[in-house]
Amino acid sequence: MTLRPYSRRPTRRTVLRGLGAIGIGTAAGAAAHGFLYERHHVQVTLETLAVSGWPRALAGFRIGFLTDLHRSGTVSHEMIAGAVREVMAHRPDMIVLGGDYVTDRDRRYINPAAEALHGLEAPQGVFAVLGNHDDEREVPAALRAAGFEVLKDQRTALSIRGERLDVAGLRYWTSRVGDITRVLHGASPTLMLLAHTPKRLIEASALSVPLLLSGHTHGGQIVLPGLGPFAAREFPVVAGSARRENTRVFVSRGVGTVYIPVRINCPPEVAILRIEPVVPG
Fold first, then answer.
1. What is the C-alpha separation between 59 and 50, in angstroms, rounded?
2. What three-state secondary structure class fits 11?
3. Is the distance from CB of 130 to CB of 121 less than 8 angstroms?
4. Inter-axis angle of helices 28-36 and 12-26, to 10 degrees?
5. Are 67 and 97 in contact (CB under 8 A)?
6. Cβ–Cβ under 8 Å, residues 168 and 147
7. Which domain holds residue 265?
8. Is the per-residue pLDDT at 95 higher than 70?
9. Per-residue model confidence (pLDDT) at position 21
10. 47-60 burial string, b = 16+ CB within 10 Å, else e?
11. Would you say residue 3 lies in a domain?
């Protein structure tokens, strides 16, 4: 066993809990709004992403993206089912699930989380990766039983409109460039990488991965005026889209909440992403 040196640096969990206590203690109105209203109202984000090397034949390809469901006693079946309905209303070509279906591997909610996702379907399939709150056995089994393809350091190839599209998914703990290279070996230039944490942007850009989709941050979950998403500052991108070298990344704020059932200035979301080629010049 390798012992890690003790660090006094606060964890994301500690910061979230601490900010929640501050929010409730010093800004009761905002906290009440975040608990009673904001966390329940899922927004639909419609965004166009220009991706390097994306073929013209796949211009306009649409991806429905849900992540960080955190089905629990405070994140209901109806809230997730409502997010599912929002995605299906847009009829995307493909659907991606970004991990953290439950919190702290709570077995009581694994099957309910999968049941809440019932009804998700797309012409090119539904692909899922796992988050740090998911176990490696029961969560994948529940997702596969629901008809979804779970990618655990795996890649699959699709043929769409005469073009090959590779979809690769990483385990949460897979971070070394060499390990990710092995997952991507043999992939076509039209490649989409699914990784729960946006920290994988560092490796993705080093490997010139065209498109990375992530969650994990919850957008900060609590975004305080003047401080911003304090609990998520460790991430290269907290929410929305960005570009690093030749890699385009989109990070979703997610659907559920973790540890404290409050969102402040950071509503939950599902995303409908329209992928277009980069226009030269």
1. 9
2. coil
3. no
4. 120
5. yes
6. no
7. 12-277
8. yes
9. 56
10. eebebbebbeebee
11. no
Q: Are 236 and 206 in contact (CB under 8 A)?
A: no
DSSP string, 192-218: EEE-SSGGGHHHHHHTT-SEEEE-SSG
User: Could you give phi then psi for residue 240, rounded to 5 degrees?
Assistant: 85, -165
Would you state the structure tokens that stand for residue 61, as one six-digit string?
């390809």
Q: Please tell me the least confidently modeled range out of 17-21, 141-145, 253-257.
A: 17-21
Residue 7 falls inside a structural domain:
no
User: Contact, 213 vs 63, CB < 8 A?
Assistant: yes
The 3-class SS string of 71-85 reads: CCCCCCHHHHHHHHH
Which of 70, 69, 67, 71 minimizes the C-alpha distance to 112? Answer: 71
Domain count, the chain: 1
Compute the CA torsion angle 260, 265, 266, 269 (nearest 10 deg).
Answer: 120
Tell me which DSSP letter residue 161 carries: T
**Tens-digit pLDDT profile for residues 208-247:** 999 999 999 999 999 988 888 877 789 999 999 999 999 9
CA atoms within 13 A of residue 106's CA, in its CB half-sphere = 18
Handedness of CA 195, 197, 201, 203 (dihedral sign): negative
Which phi and psi (to 5°) does residue 218 adopt? 60, 20
Q: Determine, yes or no, domain membership for 4.
A: no
Look up the pTM and report it.
Answer: 0.88
Please report, for the domain that includes residue 161, its CATH number: 3.60.21.10
Of 129, 180, 172, 171, nearest in space to 150 by CA: 129
Cα dihedral value 108, 110, 112, 117, nearest 10: 170
At a CB cut-off of 8 Å and minimum separation 6, what does 47 contact?
A: 240, 241, 250, 271, 272, 273, 274
Beta bridge partners of 194: 169, 213
How many CB atoms neighbour CB 241 within 10 A?
Answer: 16
